[in-house]
Amino acid sequence: SNISEEVTSPPPPGTNKQIPQSIIIGVRKGGTRALLEMLDIHPDVAAAATEVHFFDWDENYSKGLEWYRDLMPYSYPHQITIEKTPGYFTSALAPERIHAMNSSIKLLLILRDPAERVISDYTQVYFNRLENHKPVQAIENLLVRNGALNTRYKAIQRSMYDVHMYNWLRHFSLEQIHIVDGNALIQDPLPELQKVERFLNLPPRIISSNFYFNQTKGFYCIRSDGRERCLHESKGRPHPAVNSTVLQQLRSYLHEHNRTFFRLVKRTFDWQ
Ligand code: A3P
């Protein structure tokens, strides 16, 4: 069949697999898939198909750099290879491991309102558990224990952006980490992508007609190479309504972390 021919067909002449020159390090539920797919519109970008988990999973990291490179797509020498693994941002070891591979790599970090991110994270786990016939809990039961915010809940810990950023800035300069505003990418993708093109020194090739708003999905979708496509249905799911007192507890807790984060990155975001 065509499919098996495709699998065994040789790579295009002049291409090979390159170690990424840029990595989308997170954050989980920040809009990492949208960012990668939208960057892939660019003719000079070769995007890895799957999340690689090389730098955050010991069993993968121990397989070595050639194992990692082999997972990358075939690309031409003028192209930039990009992979995205959202778990890197919150991984204790990923920063020094990435630095050891390439100390001048360009890192992309897409962030959205950290309280919204918690709810999005919960929603993803909720649906995964439903699919796997595991019991689910109301979000309030995870967010609050004995009346206090449960700051050991993983989804909350991942939203303490300052804690993780601090770890990255021990190894990389601020100039090497471009932060994409995930809320802005949802509202109007082009300006955020143009900033990324500049950061990566790519010629401007992504244009407004590469995007169209899909009313049914409620999000922008991609028009490229004569095809139109939206992200998978698991991207852009409705969130549960959260008890307003609990939400206020979450927001006021994250507020201090946000302020520290703004100081660290010398930039502010209009997270509520
Ligand atoms: P929700 O599903 O909670 O709305 P990630 O790819 O890192 O898991 O991020 C998923 C999030 O990307 C979605 O979270 C959604 O808000 C956001 N997103 C940004 N642009 C999108 C787009 N064009 N289509 C769908 N989701 C998009």
Explained architecture:
With 272 residues, the chain is an alpha/beta fold. The protein has a domain at 2-113 and 162-236: Rossmann fold. Helices cover 40% and strands 17% of the residues. It has twelve helices and twelve strands. The N and C termini lie far apart (53 Å). The relative contact order is 0.16. Bound molecules: adenosine-3'-5'-diphosphate (A3P). Residues 28-34, 86, 120, 123, 185-186, 219-220, 231, 235-237 line the site of adenosine-3'-5'-diphosphate (A3P). Adenosine-3'-5'-diphosphate binds next to helix 2, helix 6, helix 10 and strand 11.
What layout of secondary structure does this protein have?
Blueprint: H1 2-8, E1 16-17, E2 22-26, H2 32-39, E3 45-47, H3 58-61, H4 65-70, E4 74-75, E5 80-84, H5 94-101, E6 106-111, H6 114-131, H7 139-143, E7 144-145, E8 148-149, H8 154-158, H9 161-169, E9 177-181, H10 182-187, H11 189-199, E10 211-214, E11 219-224, E12 227-229, H12 244-265
Parallel strand pairs: 2-5, 2-6, 3-5, 6-9
Antiparallel strand pairs: 1-4, 7-8, 10-11, 11-12
Helix pairs in contact: 9-12
Bound molecules: adenosine-3'-5'-diphosphate (A3P).
Adenosine-3'-5'-diphosphate binds at residues 28-34, 86, 120, 123, 185-186, 219-220, 231, 235-237.
